[in-house]
Amino acid sequence: MARFFEYERKSLILTMLLMLSVGSIHAQTIRNSNNSTLATISSNGDVRNSSNSLVARINSNGDIRDSSNRLIGKLDGNTVRSSTNSSLGSIDNDGTVRNSSNSVVGRISSDGTVRNANNNVIGYAKGVPLRYAAVYFFFDLIK
């Protein structure tokens, strides 16, 4: 009887771990100010539009590539660069997004709310890595 309960306990733990791992695979959603889905970003960096077509990929080395695998930009730490390596802007740790002239162009709150420089809500990126959300909303690399 003790072995039965030990087996059931192990099965329950394995089931819970599986459920947690499957949950982490889900894509994070980029939404506009009307809460309509614009895109999803998966845990491997695939960016898909609302029709589920691949539009870009953000690789672990920071390369941002279009659907044809052409380099369109790069995340270099908190700096966003063009395909020619010129600085397009940066993302501060507090979520402030700046252009190449160091002017504030927007902010991303810890809850995922995205605001422009005038403090108007332009979208939502709950659970999306800060740098990915900034690239999507402010640097016109991903369309």
What does this structure look like?
The protein is of the alpha+beta class and 143 residues long. The chain has one domain. The chain has helices spanning 2-25, 130-138; strands at 28-32, 37-41, 46-49, 54-58, 63-66, 71-76, 79-82, 87-91, 96-99, 104-108, 113-116, 121-124. Strands 1-2-3-4-5-6-7-8-9-10-11-12 form a 12-stranded antiparallel β-barrel. Strand 7 and strand 8 form a beta hairpin. The longest helix has 24 residues, at 2-25. The N and C termini lie far apart (60 Å). The model is unreliable at 9-25 (pLDDT under 50).
Query: Total strand count, please?
Result: 12
Shape: globular
Low-confidence stretches: 9-25
Strand order of the largest sheet: 1-2-3-4-5-6-7-8-9-10-11-12
Query: SSE order, as H and E?
Result: HEEEEEEEEEEEEH
**Structural class, please?**
alpha+beta
Q: Quickly count the helices.
A: 2
CA radius of gyration is 19 Å
- In this structure, how is the largest beta sheet organized? 12 strands, antiparallel, barrel
β-sheet strand percentage:
35-45%
Distance between the termini: 60 Å
Quaternary organisation: single chain
Helical content (DSSP H or I, runs of 4+): 10-25%
Mean pLDDT: 86
Number of domains: 1
Quick structural summary:
The protein has helices spanning about 1-25, 130-140; strands at about 30, 35-40, 45-50, 55-60, 65, 70-75, 80, 85-90, 95-100, 105-110, 115, 120-125. The protein is α+β, with helices and mostly antiparallel strands. Strand 10 and strand 11 form a beta hairpin.
Explain the layout of strands and helices:
Elements: H1 2-25, E1 28-32, E2 37-41, E3 46-49, E4 54-58, E5 63-66, E6 71-76, E7 79-82, E8 87-91, E9 96-99, E10 104-108, E11 113-116, E12 121-124, H2 130-138
Antiparallel strand pairs: 1-2, 1-12, 2-3, 3-4, 4-5, 5-6, 6-7, 7-8, 8-9, 9-10, 10-11, 11-12
